[in-house]
Description:
The protein is an alpha/beta fold. The chain contains ten helices and five strands; from the N terminus they run H-H-H-H-E-E-E-H-E-H-H-E-H-H-H. The longest helix has 19 residues, at 22-40.
Amino acid sequence: MCSLFGVSKSGYYEWTKRKESNRSKRRKQLEKLIRRIFFDSRQLYGSPKVWNALKHQGVHVSQKTVARIMKELGLKSRTVKKYKATTNSKHNMPVSENVLNQSFAAEKPNQVWMADITYIPTDEGWLYLSSLEDLCTRKIVGFHMDERMTKELCLKALDQAYRLQKPKGNVLHHSDRGSQYASSDYQQRLKQYGMTGSMSRKGNCYDNACIESFHSVLKKELVYLNKFKTRKEAKEKIFEYITCFYNGKRIHSSIGYFTPNQYERMFHPAA
């Protein structure tokens, strides 16, 4: 073999004993970290989020280097883009003033909650998801799923959020003008919980952009990558995605590339 390549035996054995360079070791370690972060994200993170995750771990490297290594390793985000509107705003029920008015900022948790409904396709038919998102932490504080898009669907999500978060003080609750949110039962529950209602302007999807963005992410990262045979299967996957992955593991650019749970804990210092 040595003679075939014109290399002496002593030269070959010297090469095999040569120590691996520090640069090579660092490159291999970096590749390992990038792979781990990428697959922990369910193959959803692109290079910006992988780079920020590395920074949180104390690894200093340029984003260009991360992007180049990911390309060389064939690590590409597998999200899909689609969109469709859901709620029906054509009704004669009273609507709340647009108090939020696209002021998408909150100083602390449980100050502003955003609410919306979306649909999930299954082989059995539609599954509807009602969600509430905390504007400060981007945490999904309450959600409920059902085969019918009713006010009860939204009420159960609201009840769960109130029970789990135990908000102190007034919460500004913002939604679109859907009949579920405008119903007297829902408005009465807001009053019972000491919340102030706020609703988007008619036909302006940007007024509820944050929670609609969450539903878009849910579909790109989960729904469009799976084909659910039953509503039960969809419910289980969505429950796990929201509670374990989205709230607990997925970093969010608007909160400094922390997870919603991590960011929420920053407002509750250890005793």
